[in-house]
């Protein structure tokens, strides 16, 4: 049902426009342009309080719990100051580490990848829901017998939406119909519908809740003939967002032995590395062109590549990139990688 709807409306996955649902964000608009790597005392203070809230599990500075809350406090958006509490960070990390400990495939994720793509409590600027307790409890049983993170990811994308009655459905053009987009998991659950962005955020959070590294990937505008490459001008040209999951090497018997990132469309059937937009129109996109490139979101502000990466030429482009959020076009506060080349070359890496 959801899949049919998605195919029917495949070309148009408009999330929202401009400030149409600014009211969903009960916090002041942040300044455009983020200071890269700025240290601030409040982050250390928050990390210290979160370690205390973790109790014995967070007592040692090098414990997994301490590293988790430390990473989030150091990288979280400035706008979350005063919104995300030490207790929230502690609960979030305790549950993320619990999911990591529950299966061989979750614990095999390198800790740095765990920090960046399992531990975060948010994808973009969506309202800060406490989704992890709910989704962990609901979804852990669904992946209990999964032999690999590939199997877990495919099960979650097939079963997640039907955990509610009525189920959650894809709904394009919500703001145009007068309804703001549903962007955080709890608001999507409440509404039982969302556009591609809300569904992608929800799928990423669901995957993170069971310990699978995941991120939202998307493009502002398809570079189709007849599209002006201006995402705010033409609904029919985009935007579109989807999900990538990271699989450890040799994820399952019978599955291709491929460590790295693989894509899936939220609420689409067909498993990993198969979606309506691949290979076309994804292969029309171009690296290094903001409006028609494909970006993978990171947690926290844009980060400049390290000096080593710049010197070796492995970071391209050699600058801090932001994820272009078409629903908040001027907001450059979410970091991103330009992953267009992967889609031009085949899709997974
Ligand atoms: C979305 O809205 C645009 C313009 O408002 C319209 O052209 C398009 O047909 C709509 N798409 C759907 C699937 O309703
Ligand atoms: C989608 O959710 C919104 C918010 O709850 C609701 O107003 C709208 O009717 C829903 N759309 C459909 C088609 O169910
Ligand atoms: C990119 O999109 C922005 C926002 O819609 C627009 O102002 C700009 O002209 C676009 N750039 C190109 C090259 O189309």
Automatic annotation (TrEMBL):
InterPro entries per UniProt: Papain-like_cys_pep_sf, Transglutaminase-like
**Keyword line:** Signal
Q: Which Pfam families match?
A: Transglut_core
Signal sequence range:
1-20
In this protein, which residues make up the domain named Transglutaminase-like? 142-249
Record has Signal as a keyword: yes
In which domain of life is the source organism classified?
A: Eukaryota
State whether keyword 4Fe-4S applies. Answer: no
Q: Which named protein is this?
A: Transglutaminase-like domain-containing protein
Protein species of origin: Diacronema lutheri
């Amino acid at each position: 049902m959801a899949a049919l709807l998605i195919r029917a409306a495949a070309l148009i996955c408009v999330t929202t426009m401009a400030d149409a649902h600014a009211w969903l964000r009960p916090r002041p608009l942040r300044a455009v342009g983020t200071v890269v790597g700025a240290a601030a005392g409040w982050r250390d203070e928050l990390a210290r309080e979160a370690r205390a809230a973790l109790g014995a599990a967070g007592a040692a500075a090098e414990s997994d719990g301490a590293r988790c809350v430390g990473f989030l406090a150091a990288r979280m958006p400035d706008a979350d100051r005063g919104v995300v509490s030490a207790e929230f960070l502690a609960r979030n990390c305790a549950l993320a580490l619990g999911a990591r400990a529950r299966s061989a495939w979750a614990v095999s994720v390198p800790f740095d990848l765990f920090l960046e793509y399992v531990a975060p409590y948010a994808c973009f600027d969506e309202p800060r829901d406490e989704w992890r307790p709910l989704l962990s409890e609901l979804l852990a049983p669904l992946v209990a017998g999964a032999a690999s993170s590939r199997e877990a990811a495919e099960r979650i994308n097939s079963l997640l939406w039907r955990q509610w009655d009525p189920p959650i459905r894809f709904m394009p053009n919500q703001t145009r119909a007068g309804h703001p987009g549903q962007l955080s998991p709890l608001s999507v659950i409440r509404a039982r519908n969302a556009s591609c962005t809300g569904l992608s955020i929800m799928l990423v959070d669901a995957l993170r809740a069971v310990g699978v590294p995941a991120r939202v990937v998307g493009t502002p505008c398809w570079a189709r003939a007849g599209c002006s490459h201006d995402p705010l001008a033409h609904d029919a040209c985009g935007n579109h967002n989807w999900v990538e999951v990271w699989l450890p090497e040799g994820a399952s018997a019978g599955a291709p032995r491929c460590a790295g990132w693989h894509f899936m469309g939220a609420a689409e059937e067909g498993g990993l590395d198969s979606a309506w937009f691949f290979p076309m129109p994804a292969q029309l996109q171009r690296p290094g062109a903001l409006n028609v490139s494909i970006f993978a979101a990171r947690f926290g502000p844009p980060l400049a590549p390290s000096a080593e990466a710049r010197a070796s030429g492995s970071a391209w482009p050699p600058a801090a990139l932001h994820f272009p959020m078409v629903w908040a076009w001027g907001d450059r506060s979410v970091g991103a990688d330009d992953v267009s080349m992967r889609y031009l070359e085949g899709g997974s890496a």
